[in-house]
Specification:
The protein is an alpha+beta fold. It has one domain (about 5-60). The chain has two helices and five strands, in the order H-E-H-E-E-E-E. A hairpin with a 4-residue loop joins strand 4 and strand 5 (about 55-60). The longest helix is centred in the N-terminal third of the chain and has 8 residues, at about 5-10.
């Protein structure tokens, strides 16, 4: 099941589309349904979940 951006925001908080993802994160690798990223603002490594259509990234979780 694919969700709208509003549904994802309600459930997970901040949601990124592909352009916003590229502004805020360095993408290291994909391991569906997750993407390994480094947040540009503080170099924090973590993961985001994503859905395919429409493509949204959400639920950022930092690596501890």
């Amino acid at each position: 099941m694919e969700y709208t951006k509003e549904e994802l925001e309600e459930r997970f908080g901040e949601v990124w589309d592909t352009n916003k993802l590229q502004e805020d994160f360095y993408v290291e690798s994909f391991f569906a349904p997750y993407v390994i990223v480094t947040r540009k603002s503080d170099n924090q490594k973590g993961t985001l979940a994503f859905q395919h259509r429409p493509r949204f990234y959400f639920d950022f979780s930092t690596d501890e």
